[in-house]
Protein backbone atom coordinates (compact mmCIF):
# COMPACT_ATOMS: atom_id res chain seq x y z
CA UNK A 1 0.00 0.00 0.00
CA UNK A 2 2.76 2.38 0.96
CA UNK A 3 4.49 1.74 -2.36
CA UNK A 4 1.38 2.56 -4.29
CA UNK A 5 0.82 5.79 -2.40
CA UNK A 6 4.41 6.72 -3.04
CA UNK A 7 3.98 6.03 -6.74
CA UNK A 8 0.73 8.00 -6.85
CA UNK A 9 2.67 10.92 -5.46
CA UNK A 10 4.58 10.99 -8.75
CA UNK A 11 1.61 12.80 -10.19
CA UNK A 12 2.41 15.93 -8.25
CA UNK A 13 5.37 16.45 -10.59
CA UNK A 14 4.25 18.43 -13.64
CA UNK A 15 6.71 16.40 -15.60
CA UNK A 16 4.87 13.16 -15.04
CA UNK A 17 1.66 14.78 -16.12
CA UNK A 18 3.34 15.97 -19.32
CA UNK A 19 4.55 12.47 -19.99
CA UNK A 20 0.99 11.20 -19.59
CA UNK A 21 -0.26 13.78 -22.06
CA UNK A 22 2.45 12.85 -24.53
CA UNK A 23 1.66 9.16 -24.24
CA UNK A 24 -1.99 9.82 -24.94
CA UNK A 25 -1.23 12.09 -27.89
CA UNK A 26 1.18 9.65 -29.48
CA UNK A 27 -1.30 6.81 -29.09
CA UNK A 28 -4.01 9.02 -30.57
CA UNK A 29 -1.93 9.90 -33.64
CA UNK A 30 -0.89 6.28 -34.12
CA UNK A 31 -4.49 5.09 -33.98
CA UNK A 32 -5.75 7.65 -36.52
CA UNK A 33 -3.01 6.63 -38.89
CA UNK A 34 -3.71 2.98 -38.18
CA UNK A 35 -7.12 3.08 -39.86
CA UNK A 36 -5.89 3.89 -43.39
CA UNK A 37 -2.79 1.73 -42.88
CA UNK A 38 -4.82 -1.33 -41.95
CA UNK A 39 -7.41 -0.73 -44.68
CA UNK A 40 -4.80 -0.21 -47.36
CA UNK A 41 -3.03 -3.37 -46.19
CA UNK A 42 -0.04 -1.22 -45.38
CA UNK A 43 0.37 -2.30 -41.76
CA UNK A 44 3.59 -4.03 -42.84
CA UNK A 45 5.11 -0.57 -43.25
CA UNK A 46 4.64 0.14 -39.57
CA UNK A 47 6.10 -3.20 -38.63
CA UNK A 48 9.07 -2.97 -40.98
CA UNK A 49 9.81 0.60 -39.93
CA UNK A 50 9.93 -0.16 -36.24
CA UNK A 51 12.72 -2.64 -36.90
CA UNK A 52 14.56 -0.18 -39.10
CA UNK A 53 14.27 2.41 -36.34
CA UNK A 54 15.88 -0.07 -33.93
CA UNK A 55 18.82 -0.45 -36.29
CA UNK A 56 19.10 3.33 -36.59
CA UNK A 57 19.09 3.75 -32.83
CA UNK A 58 21.84 1.19 -32.53
CA UNK A 59 23.97 3.12 -34.99
CA UNK A 60 23.23 6.39 -33.19
CA UNK A 61 24.25 4.78 -29.90
CA UNK A 62 27.48 3.49 -31.37
CA UNK A 63 28.27 6.89 -32.87
CA UNK A 64 27.56 8.32 -29.42
CA UNK A 65 25.28 11.04 -30.78
CA UNK A 66 24.04 13.46 -28.15
CA UNK A 67 20.56 13.33 -29.60
CA UNK A 68 19.83 10.17 -31.53
CA UNK A 69 16.56 11.49 -33.01
CA UNK A 70 18.61 13.53 -35.47
CA UNK A 71 19.79 10.32 -37.08
CA UNK A 72 16.88 8.01 -36.36
CA UNK A 73 14.13 10.27 -37.75
CA UNK A 74 15.64 10.88 -41.22
CA UNK A 75 16.69 7.23 -41.64
CA UNK A 76 13.24 5.96 -40.68
CA UNK A 77 11.51 8.43 -42.99
CA UNK A 78 13.79 7.40 -45.84
CA UNK A 79 12.92 3.76 -45.30
CA UNK A 80 9.22 4.62 -45.10
CA UNK A 81 9.41 5.93 -48.64
CA UNK A 82 11.40 2.88 -49.71
CA UNK A 83 8.97 0.41 -48.12
CA UNK A 84 6.05 2.16 -49.77
CA UNK A 85 7.74 1.75 -53.16
CA UNK A 86 8.46 -1.91 -52.50
CA UNK A 87 4.89 -2.49 -51.35
CA UNK A 88 3.44 -0.89 -54.50
CA UNK A 89 5.69 -2.73 -56.89
CA UNK A 90 4.01 -5.94 -57.90
CA UNK A 91 7.21 -7.31 -59.43
CA UNK A 92 9.27 -7.59 -56.27
CA UNK A 93 7.99 -10.04 -53.69
CA UNK A 94 7.02 -7.23 -51.31
CA UNK A 95 6.46 -9.02 -48.02
CA UNK A 96 9.58 -11.15 -48.29
CA UNK A 97 11.74 -8.12 -49.10
CA UNK A 98 10.32 -6.26 -46.14
CA UNK A 99 10.81 -9.20 -43.79
CA UNK A 100 14.45 -9.35 -44.88
CA UNK A 101 14.92 -5.67 -44.29
CA UNK A 102 13.25 -5.79 -40.87
CA UNK A 103 15.09 -8.80 -39.51
CA UNK A 104 18.33 -7.55 -41.06
CA UNK A 105 18.06 -4.20 -39.25
CA UNK A 106 17.39 -5.96 -35.95
CA UNK A 107 20.38 -8.27 -36.33
CA UNK A 108 22.82 -5.62 -37.50
CA UNK A 109 21.58 -3.20 -34.84
CA UNK A 110 22.09 -5.71 -32.04
CA UNK A 111 25.48 -6.70 -33.42
CA UNK A 112 26.63 -3.08 -33.54
CA UNK A 113 25.43 -2.37 -30.04
CA UNK A 114 27.22 -5.43 -28.75
CA UNK A 115 30.45 -4.79 -30.57
CA UNK A 116 30.85 -1.07 -29.99
CA UNK A 117 28.68 0.04 -27.11
CA UNK A 118 30.44 1.89 -24.31
CA UNK A 119 27.44 1.57 -22.05
CA UNK A 120 27.85 -0.39 -18.83
CA UNK A 121 24.31 -1.71 -19.06
CA UNK A 122 24.07 -3.13 -22.56
CA UNK A 123 21.21 -5.57 -22.10
CA UNK A 124 19.26 -2.84 -20.32
CA UNK A 125 19.79 -0.51 -23.28
CA UNK A 126 18.71 -3.11 -25.79
CA UNK A 127 15.68 -4.02 -23.74
CA UNK A 128 14.61 -0.39 -23.48
CA UNK A 129 14.95 0.09 -27.22
CA UNK A 130 12.93 -3.01 -27.95
CA UNK A 131 10.24 -2.74 -25.31
CA UNK A 132 10.24 0.92 -24.29
CA UNK A 133 11.05 2.77 -21.11
CA UNK A 134 10.57 0.71 -18.01
CA UNK A 135 9.46 3.89 -16.36
CA UNK A 136 7.83 6.95 -17.81
CA UNK A 137 10.23 9.06 -15.80
CA UNK A 138 13.14 8.26 -18.10
CA UNK A 139 11.69 10.46 -20.86
CA UNK A 140 13.63 13.69 -21.06
CA UNK A 141 12.20 17.17 -21.42
CA UNK A 142 13.22 17.59 -25.06
CA UNK A 143 11.41 14.37 -26.02
CA UNK A 144 8.26 15.49 -24.28
CA UNK A 145 8.05 18.79 -26.13
CA UNK A 146 8.99 17.23 -29.44
CA UNK A 147 6.25 14.63 -29.05
CA UNK A 148 3.78 17.31 -28.14
CA UNK A 149 4.43 19.35 -31.28
CA UNK A 150 4.68 16.41 -33.63
CA UNK A 151 1.44 14.85 -32.42
CA UNK A 152 -0.28 18.20 -32.82
CA UNK A 153 1.04 18.40 -36.39
CA UNK A 154 -0.25 14.89 -37.16
CA UNK A 155 -3.70 15.75 -35.81
CA UNK A 156 -3.88 18.93 -37.91
CA UNK A 157 -2.74 17.09 -41.05
CA UNK A 158 -5.40 14.47 -40.45
CA UNK A 159 -8.15 17.01 -40.05
CA UNK A 160 -7.09 18.91 -43.18
CA UNK A 161 -6.74 15.83 -45.37
CA UNK A 162 -9.43 13.65 -43.81
CA UNK A 163 -11.68 13.50 -46.90
CA UNK A 164 -8.79 12.94 -49.25
CA UNK A 165 -7.35 10.20 -47.08
CA UNK A 166 -10.75 8.50 -47.07
CA UNK A 167 -11.00 8.69 -50.86
CA UNK A 168 -7.48 7.41 -51.46
CA UNK A 169 -7.96 4.61 -48.94
CA UNK A 170 -11.34 3.46 -50.19
CA UNK A 171 -10.64 3.54 -53.91
CA UNK A 172 -7.29 4.81 -55.08
CA UNK A 173 -8.08 4.43 -58.80
CA UNK A 174 -11.26 6.48 -58.57
CA UNK A 175 -9.53 9.13 -56.48
CA UNK A 176 -6.70 9.42 -59.00
CA UNK A 177 -9.14 9.49 -61.90
CA UNK A 178 -10.77 12.57 -60.37
CA UNK A 179 -7.46 14.33 -59.93
CA UNK A 180 -6.57 13.49 -56.31
CA UNK A 181 -2.80 13.18 -56.05
CA UNK A 182 -2.90 9.72 -54.53
CA UNK A 183 0.86 9.25 -54.57
CA UNK A 184 1.28 12.36 -52.50
CA UNK A 185 -1.18 11.11 -49.88
CA UNK A 186 0.40 7.64 -49.82
CA UNK A 187 3.74 9.30 -49.25
CA UNK A 188 2.26 11.50 -46.56
CA UNK A 189 0.84 8.47 -44.79
CA UNK A 190 4.18 6.65 -44.97
CA UNK A 191 6.18 9.64 -43.73
CA UNK A 192 3.78 10.38 -40.89
CA UNK A 193 3.95 6.70 -39.91
CA UNK A 194 7.72 7.00 -39.71
CA UNK A 195 7.48 10.10 -37.54
CA UNK A 196 5.01 8.49 -35.17
CA UNK A 197 7.08 5.35 -34.89
CA UNK A 198 10.16 7.34 -33.97
CA UNK A 199 8.18 9.29 -31.39
CA UNK A 200 6.39 6.33 -29.88
CA UNK A 201 9.52 4.27 -29.64
CA UNK A 202 10.56 5.95 -26.41
CA UNK A 203 7.22 5.10 -24.95
CA UNK A 204 6.54 1.53 -25.98
CA UNK A 205 9.71 0.45 -27.75
CA UNK A 206 10.24 -0.70 -31.29
CA UNK A 207 8.73 -4.15 -31.00
CA UNK A 208 5.46 -2.95 -29.52
CA UNK A 209 4.83 0.16 -31.59
CA UNK A 210 2.90 -1.67 -34.32
CA UNK A 211 0.37 -2.57 -31.67
CA UNK A 212 -0.46 1.11 -31.12
CA UNK A 213 -1.01 1.50 -34.85
CA UNK A 214 -2.95 -1.66 -35.61
CA UNK A 215 -4.96 -2.55 -32.50
CA UNK A 216 -7.27 0.48 -32.16
CA UNK A 217 -8.23 0.33 -35.85
CA UNK A 218 -8.99 -3.39 -35.75
CA UNK A 219 -10.83 -3.00 -32.46
CA UNK A 220 -13.06 -0.25 -33.85
CA UNK A 221 -13.81 -2.29 -36.98
CA UNK A 222 -15.25 -5.10 -34.84
CA UNK A 223 -18.30 -2.94 -34.23
CA UNK A 224 -18.40 0.15 -36.41
CA UNK A 225 -19.06 0.15 -40.13
CA UNK A 226 -18.58 3.72 -41.35
CA UNK A 227 -15.18 5.29 -41.87
CA UNK A 228 -15.88 8.23 -39.61
CA UNK A 229 -17.19 6.14 -36.74
CA UNK A 230 -14.24 3.75 -37.06
CA UNK A 231 -11.84 6.71 -36.89
CA UNK A 232 -13.57 8.21 -33.87
CA UNK A 233 -13.83 4.89 -32.07
CA UNK A 234 -10.20 4.00 -32.80
CA UNK A 235 -9.11 7.35 -31.40
CA UNK A 236 -11.28 6.83 -28.33
CA UNK A 237 -9.98 3.31 -27.73
CA UNK A 238 -6.37 4.42 -28.19
CA UNK A 239 -6.70 7.34 -25.79
CA UNK A 240 -8.44 5.26 -23.12
CA UNK A 241 -5.98 2.38 -23.40
CA UNK A 242 -2.98 4.69 -23.30
CA UNK A 243 -4.26 6.63 -20.31
CA UNK A 244 -5.36 3.53 -18.37
CA UNK A 245 -2.22 1.66 -19.36
CA UNK A 246 0.09 4.40 -18.19
CA UNK A 247 -1.76 4.94 -14.93
CA UNK A 248 -1.70 1.22 -14.27
CA UNK A 249 1.98 1.09 -15.18
CA UNK A 250 2.83 3.84 -12.72
CA UNK A 251 0.72 2.44 -9.92
CA UNK A 252 1.70 -1.20 -10.41
CA UNK A 253 5.26 -0.46 -11.46
CA UNK A 254 4.93 -2.46 -14.69
CA UNK A 255 6.65 -1.54 -17.99
CA UNK A 256 4.71 1.20 -19.77
CA UNK A 257 4.67 -0.20 -23.31
CA UNK A 258 3.65 -3.70 -22.37
CA UNK A 259 0.90 -2.40 -20.10
CA UNK A 260 -0.59 -0.16 -22.81
CA UNK A 261 -0.51 -2.97 -25.34
CA UNK A 262 -2.17 -5.33 -22.85
CA UNK A 263 -4.93 -2.76 -22.37
CA UNK A 264 -5.35 -2.68 -26.17
CA UNK A 265 -5.58 -6.46 -26.33
CA UNK A 266 -8.27 -6.40 -23.65
CA UNK A 267 -10.21 -3.74 -25.58
CA UNK A 268 -9.95 -5.81 -28.74
CA UNK A 269 -11.32 -8.84 -26.89
CA UNK A 270 -14.26 -6.89 -25.46
CA UNK A 271 -15.13 -5.30 -28.83
CA UNK A 272 -14.90 -8.65 -30.59
CA UNK A 273 -17.38 -10.14 -28.15
CA UNK A 274 -19.71 -7.15 -28.49
CA UNK A 275 -19.38 -7.39 -32.25
CA UNK A 276 -20.42 -11.03 -32.20
CA UNK A 277 -23.48 -10.29 -30.07
CA UNK A 278 -24.37 -7.35 -32.30
CA UNK A 279 -24.12 -9.31 -35.53
CA UNK A 280 -26.14 -12.23 -34.21
CA UNK A 281 -29.01 -9.97 -33.23
CA UNK A 282 -28.97 -8.02 -36.48
CA UNK B 1 -13.96 18.85 -81.38
CA UNK B 2 -14.56 15.39 -79.90
CA UNK B 3 -14.86 14.99 -76.13
CA UNK B 4 -12.27 12.26 -76.13
CA UNK B 5 -9.82 11.06 -78.77
CA UNK B 6 -7.41 8.14 -78.69
CA UNK B 7 -4.70 8.46 -81.34
CA UNK B 8 -2.85 5.30 -82.40
CA UNK B 9 -2.84 4.28 -78.78
CA UNK B 10 -0.88 1.25 -77.59
CA UNK B 11 -1.34 0.25 -74.00
CA UNK B 12 -0.24 -2.30 -71.46
CA UNK B 13 1.72 -2.73 -68.25
CA UNK B 14 5.43 -2.03 -67.87
CA UNK B 15 6.26 -2.23 -71.55
CA UNK B 16 4.19 -5.36 -72.12
CA UNK B 17 1.73 -4.27 -74.78
CA UNK B 18 -1.83 -5.60 -74.54
CA UNK B 19 -3.62 -3.54 -77.20
CA UNK B 20 -1.90 -2.01 -80.20
CA UNK B 21 -2.72 0.85 -82.50
CA UNK B 22 -6.15 1.79 -81.22
CA UNK B 23 -7.77 4.93 -82.62
CA UNK B 24 -11.25 6.17 -81.91
CA UNK B 25 -13.05 9.28 -80.79
CA UNK B 26 -16.12 9.99 -78.74
CA UNK B 27 -18.32 13.02 -79.31
CA UNK B 28 -20.47 14.75 -76.78
CA UNK B 29 -23.73 12.85 -76.39
CA UNK B 30 -22.41 9.55 -77.74
CA UNK B 31 -23.02 6.20 -76.10
CA UNK B 32 -19.98 4.05 -76.80
CA UNK B 33 -20.24 0.38 -75.97
CA UNK B 34 -16.99 -1.56 -75.54
CA UNK B 35 -17.07 -5.29 -76.15
CA UNK B 36 -14.34 -7.89 -75.88
CA UNK B 37 -13.31 -11.12 -74.22
CA UNK B 38 -12.04 -11.27 -70.65
CA UNK B 39 -8.40 -10.26 -70.55
CA UNK B 40 -8.52 -8.46 -73.89
CA UNK B 41 -7.54 -5.21 -72.18
CA UNK B 42 -10.80 -3.29 -71.80
CA UNK B 43 -10.19 -2.27 -68.19
CA UNK B 44 -6.60 -1.41 -69.08
CA UNK B 45 -7.93 0.87 -71.81
CA UNK B 46 -10.08 2.68 -69.23
CA UNK B 47 -7.11 3.09 -66.92
CA UNK B 48 -5.03 4.50 -69.74
CA UNK B 49 -7.74 6.96 -70.74
CA UNK B 50 -8.08 8.03 -67.10
CA UNK B 51 -4.29 8.44 -66.90
CA UNK B 52 -3.96 5.90 -64.11
CA UNK B 53 -1.28 4.16 -66.19
CA UNK B 54 0.80 5.73 -68.96
CA UNK B 55 0.22 4.63 -72.57
CA UNK B 56 2.95 2.54 -74.20
CA UNK B 57 2.67 4.88 -77.18
CA UNK B 58 0.12 7.18 -78.75
CA UNK B 59 -2.03 9.83 -77.16
CA UNK B 60 -5.28 10.38 -75.27
CA UNK B 61 -6.73 13.83 -75.89
CA UNK B 62 -9.66 15.39 -74.08
CA UNK B 63 -11.50 18.24 -75.73
CA UNK B 64 -14.80 20.07 -75.92
CA UNK B 65 -14.17 21.67 -72.52
CA UNK B 66 -13.71 18.35 -70.74
CA UNK B 67 -11.02 18.43 -68.10
CA UNK B 68 -9.40 15.05 -67.46
CA UNK B 69 -10.31 15.23 -63.78
CA UNK B 70 -14.06 15.51 -64.32
CA UNK B 71 -14.69 12.06 -65.74
CA UNK B 72 -17.07 9.93 -63.68
CA UNK B 73 -15.48 6.49 -63.34
CA UNK B 74 -17.14 3.30 -62.17
CA UNK B 75 -14.35 0.75 -61.67
CA UNK B 76 -14.77 -2.95 -62.14
CA UNK B 77 -15.63 -4.39 -58.72
CA UNK B 78 -12.65 -5.69 -56.79
CA UNK B 79 -12.70 -7.83 -53.69
CA UNK B 80 -10.57 -5.39 -51.68
CA UNK B 81 -13.41 -2.91 -51.33
CA UNK B 82 -15.85 -5.42 -50.05
CA UNK B 83 -14.99 -5.42 -46.34
CA UNK B 84 -14.25 -1.72 -46.09
CA UNK B 85 -16.00 0.21 -43.30
CA UNK B 86 -17.69 3.06 -45.13
CA UNK B 87 -21.23 4.38 -45.19
CA UNK B 88 -23.11 4.98 -48.43
CA UNK B 89 -23.15 8.76 -47.96
CA UNK B 90 -19.41 8.85 -47.26
CA UNK B 91 -18.74 7.05 -50.53
CA UNK B 92 -21.11 9.10 -52.69
CA UNK B 93 -19.80 12.35 -51.22
CA UNK B 94 -16.23 11.36 -52.06
CA UNK B 95 -17.23 11.76 -55.72
CA UNK B 96 -17.39 15.51 -55.07
CA UNK B 97 -13.76 15.72 -54.00
CA UNK B 98 -12.59 16.96 -57.40
CA UNK B 99 -14.72 20.06 -56.84
CA UNK B 100 -13.01 20.81 -53.51
CA UNK B 101 -9.52 21.64 -54.72
CA UNK B 102 -7.45 22.41 -51.64
CA UNK B 103 -10.49 23.12 -49.48
CA UNK B 104 -10.41 20.45 -46.75
CA UNK B 105 -14.16 20.03 -46.22
CA UNK B 106 -17.25 19.62 -48.38
CA UNK B 107 -19.40 22.66 -49.01
CA UNK B 108 -23.16 22.75 -48.61
CA UNK B 109 -23.53 22.72 -52.40
CA UNK B 110 -21.46 19.53 -52.67
CA UNK B 111 -23.58 17.82 -50.02
CA UNK B 112 -26.63 18.80 -52.06
CA UNK B 113 -25.14 17.32 -55.21
CA UNK B 114 -24.42 14.08 -53.38
CA UNK B 115 -27.98 14.01 -52.04
CA UNK B 116 -29.51 14.67 -55.45
CA UNK B 117 -27.54 11.85 -57.03
CA UNK B 118 -28.52 9.45 -54.25
CA UNK B 119 -32.13 10.42 -54.89
CA UNK B 120 -31.71 9.84 -58.60
CA UNK B 121 -30.52 6.31 -57.92
CA UNK B 122 -33.10 5.68 -55.23
CA UNK B 123 -30.59 5.04 -52.48
CA UNK B 124 -31.45 7.86 -50.08
CA UNK B 125 -32.81 5.42 -47.53
CA UNK B 126 -29.48 3.60 -47.60
CA UNK B 127 -27.44 6.75 -46.85
CA UNK B 128 -26.42 5.71 -43.35
CA UNK B 129 -26.04 2.03 -44.17
CA UNK B 130 -22.71 0.31 -44.41
CA UNK B 131 -21.51 -0.28 -47.96
CA UNK B 132 -20.27 -3.80 -47.26
CA UNK B 133 -23.70 -4.94 -46.04
CA UNK B 134 -25.46 -3.98 -49.29
CA UNK B 135 -26.37 -6.31 -52.12
CA UNK B 136 -24.30 -6.27 -55.30
CA UNK B 137 -26.92 -4.22 -57.13
CA UNK B 138 -27.15 -1.67 -54.34
CA UNK B 139 -23.37 -1.37 -54.24
CA UNK B 140 -23.27 -0.68 -57.97
CA UNK B 141 -25.85 2.06 -57.57
CA UNK B 142 -23.77 3.65 -54.80
CA UNK B 143 -20.68 3.67 -57.02
CA UNK B 144 -22.73 5.05 -59.91
CA UNK B 145 -24.00 7.88 -57.70
CA UNK B 146 -20.40 8.62 -56.75
CA UNK B 147 -19.37 8.69 -60.41
CA UNK B 148 -22.26 11.06 -61.18
CA UNK B 149 -21.04 13.43 -58.46
CA UNK B 150 -17.71 13.65 -60.23
CA UNK B 151 -19.02 14.61 -63.67
CA UNK B 152 -21.61 16.46 -65.68
CA UNK B 153 -20.19 15.30 -69.01
CA UNK B 154 -18.65 11.86 -69.29
CA UNK B 155 -19.22 8.56 -67.49
CA UNK B 156 -16.90 5.61 -67.95
CA UNK B 157 -18.49 2.43 -66.63
CA UNK B 158 -16.51 -0.80 -66.34
CA UNK B 159 -18.91 -3.76 -66.36
CA UNK B 160 -21.53 -2.01 -64.23
CA UNK B 161 -24.05 -4.84 -64.55
CA UNK B 162 -21.71 -7.72 -63.70
CA UNK B 163 -23.27 -9.98 -61.10
CA UNK B 164 -26.75 -8.47 -61.23
CA UNK B 165 -29.92 -10.48 -61.80
CA UNK B 166 -31.77 -9.99 -65.13
CA UNK B 167 -34.20 -7.45 -63.66
CA UNK B 168 -31.36 -5.53 -61.99
CA UNK B 169 -29.47 -5.48 -65.26
CA UNK B 170 -32.45 -4.23 -67.25
CA UNK B 171 -33.12 -1.48 -64.70
CA UNK B 172 -29.49 -0.40 -64.70
CA UNK B 173 -29.24 -0.25 -68.50
CA UNK B 174 -32.45 1.75 -68.68
CA UNK B 175 -31.17 4.15 -66.08
CA UNK B 176 -27.90 4.64 -67.95
CA UNK B 177 -29.89 5.20 -71.15
CA UNK B 178 -31.84 7.99 -69.45
CA UNK B 179 -28.61 9.61 -68.25
CA UNK B 180 -27.51 9.66 -71.87
CA UNK B 181 -30.72 10.79 -73.53
CA UNK B 182 -32.22 13.05 -70.86
CA UNK B 183 -29.22 14.49 -69.04
CA UNK B 184 -26.98 14.54 -72.10
CA UNK B 185 -24.16 12.70 -70.33
CA UNK B 186 -21.77 10.94 -72.70
CA UNK B 187 -21.37 7.25 -71.85
CA UNK B 188 -18.49 4.88 -72.44
CA UNK B 189 -19.36 1.47 -71.11
CA UNK B 190 -17.70 -1.93 -71.00
CA UNK B 191 -20.14 -4.80 -70.90
CA UNK B 192 -20.57 -8.40 -71.93
CA UNK B 193 -24.31 -8.01 -72.53
CA UNK B 194 -24.94 -7.80 -76.25
CA UNK B 195 -28.67 -6.99 -76.36
CA UNK B 196 -28.42 -3.63 -74.54
CA UNK B 197 -25.70 -2.69 -77.01
CA UNK B 198 -28.13 -3.19 -79.87
CA UNK B 199 -30.83 -1.35 -77.99
CA UNK B 200 -29.08 1.67 -76.52
CA UNK B 201 -25.58 2.28 -77.87
CA UNK B 202 -24.69 4.75 -80.61
CA UNK B 203 -21.19 3.41 -81.29
CA UNK B 204 -19.42 0.11 -80.69
CA UNK B 205 -15.77 -0.65 -80.07
CA UNK B 206 -14.97 -4.34 -80.26
CA UNK B 207 -11.54 -5.29 -78.93
CA UNK B 208 -9.83 -8.62 -79.49
CA UNK B 209 -6.57 -10.29 -80.47
CA UNK B 210 -4.41 -7.43 -79.21
CA UNK B 211 -6.13 -4.67 -81.15
CA UNK B 212 -9.39 -3.17 -82.29
CA UNK B 213 -11.60 -5.52 -84.30
CA UNK B 214 -14.22 -2.90 -84.96
CA UNK B 215 -15.00 0.72 -84.26
CA UNK B 216 -17.99 2.47 -85.75
CA UNK B 217 -21.70 3.03 -85.47
CA UNK B 218 -24.04 0.44 -84.08
CA UNK B 219 -25.62 -0.07 -87.51
CA UNK B 220 -22.34 -0.89 -89.20
CA UNK B 221 -21.45 -3.20 -86.36
CA UNK B 222 -24.70 -5.09 -86.83
CA UNK B 223 -23.95 -5.42 -90.54
CA UNK B 224 -20.43 -6.66 -89.85
CA UNK B 225 -21.78 -9.71 -88.06
CA UNK B 226 -18.86 -9.61 -85.61
CA UNK B 227 -21.22 -9.82 -82.67
CA UNK B 228 -22.20 -13.34 -83.67
CA UNK B 229 -19.02 -14.75 -82.10
CA UNK B 230 -20.52 -13.48 -78.87
CA UNK B 231 -23.57 -15.02 -77.24
CA UNK B 232 -25.83 -15.64 -80.20
CA UNK B 233 -28.25 -17.83 -78.30
CA UNK B 234 -30.93 -15.64 -79.81
CA UNK B 235 -29.96 -17.14 -83.13
CA UNK B 236 -29.11 -13.79 -84.66
CA UNK B 237 -32.46 -12.07 -84.23
CA UNK B 238 -30.91 -8.98 -82.63
CA UNK B 239 -31.96 -5.81 -84.40
CA UNK B 240 -29.13 -3.30 -84.76
CA UNK B 241 -31.18 -0.67 -86.55
N1 LIG C 1 -1.75 -4.46 -62.79
C1 LIG C 1 -1.44 -5.27 -63.82
N2 LIG C 1 -0.14 -5.54 -64.11
C2 LIG C 1 0.19 -6.33 -65.15
N3 LIG C 1 -0.70 -6.93 -65.96
C3 LIG C 1 -2.01 -6.71 -65.74
C4 LIG C 1 -2.45 -5.87 -64.65
N4 LIG C 1 -3.80 -5.84 -64.67
C5 LIG C 1 -4.20 -6.61 -65.71
N5 LIG C 1 -3.13 -7.14 -66.36
C6 LIG C 1 -3.18 -8.02 -67.55
O1 LIG C 1 -3.64 -7.25 -68.64
C7 LIG C 1 -4.51 -8.02 -69.45
C8 LIG C 1 -5.80 -7.27 -69.68
O2 LIG C 1 -6.50 -7.12 -68.48
P1 LIG C 1 -7.83 -6.26 -68.37
O3 LIG C 1 -7.60 -4.93 -68.96
O4 LIG C 1 -8.29 -6.30 -66.96
O5 LIG C 1 -8.84 -7.09 -69.29
P2 LIG C 1 -10.43 -6.99 -69.41
O6 LIG C 1 -10.90 -5.84 -68.59
O7 LIG C 1 -10.68 -6.79 -70.87
O8 LIG C 1 -10.99 -8.28 -68.94
C9 LIG C 1 -4.71 -9.35 -68.75
O9 LIG C 1 -3.93 -10.31 -69.42
C10 LIG C 1 -4.18 -9.14 -67.36
O10 LIG C 1 -3.57 -10.31 -66.89
MG1 LIG D 1 -12.08 -5.71 -66.96
Walkthrough of the structure:
The complex is a heterodimer of chains A (282) and B (241). Chain A has 12 helices and no strands. With 282 residues, chain A is mainly α. Chain A has a single domain (2-276), classed as ABC transporter involved in vitamin B12 uptake, BtuC (Orthogonal Bundle), CATH 1.10.3470. Chain B folds into 2 domains: 29-54 and 153-241, 3-Layer(aba) Sandwich (Rossmann fold); 77-152, no CATH class. Chain B has a 6-stranded mixed β-sheet, with helices on both faces. Chain B has a 3-stranded antiparallel β-sheet with strand order 2-1-4, covered by helices on one side. The two termini of chain B are 27 Å apart. The chains are: A mainly alpha (282), B alpha/beta (241). Chains A and B meet through α7, α8 and α11 of A and α2, α3 and α5 of B. Bound molecules: adenosine-5'-diphosphate and magnesium ion (MG). Residues 42-43, 76, 158 of chain B line the site of magnesium ion (MG).
Index terms:
heterodimer, A: mainly alpha, ABC transporter involved in vitamin B12 uptake, BtuC, 12 helices, B: alpha/beta, Rossmann fold, 6-stranded mixed beta sheet, 3-stranded antiparallel beta sheet, binds adenosine-5'-diphosphate, binds magnesium ion
Amino acid sequence: MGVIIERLSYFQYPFVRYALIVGVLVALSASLLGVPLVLKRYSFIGDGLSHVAFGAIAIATVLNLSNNLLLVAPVTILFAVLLLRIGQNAKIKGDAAIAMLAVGSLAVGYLLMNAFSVSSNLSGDVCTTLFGSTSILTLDRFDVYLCLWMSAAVLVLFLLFYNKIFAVTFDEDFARATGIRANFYNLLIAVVTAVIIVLAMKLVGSLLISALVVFPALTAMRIFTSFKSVMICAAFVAVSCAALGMLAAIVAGTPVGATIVTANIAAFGVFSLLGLLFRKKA
Amino acid sequence: MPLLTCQSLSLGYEGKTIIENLSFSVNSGDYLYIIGENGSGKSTLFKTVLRLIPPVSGRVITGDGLSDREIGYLPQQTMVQRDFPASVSEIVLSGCLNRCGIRPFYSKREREIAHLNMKKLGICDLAKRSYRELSGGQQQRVLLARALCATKKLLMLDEPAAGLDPKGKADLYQFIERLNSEDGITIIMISHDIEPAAKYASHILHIGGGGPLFFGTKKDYGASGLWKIYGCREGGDISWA
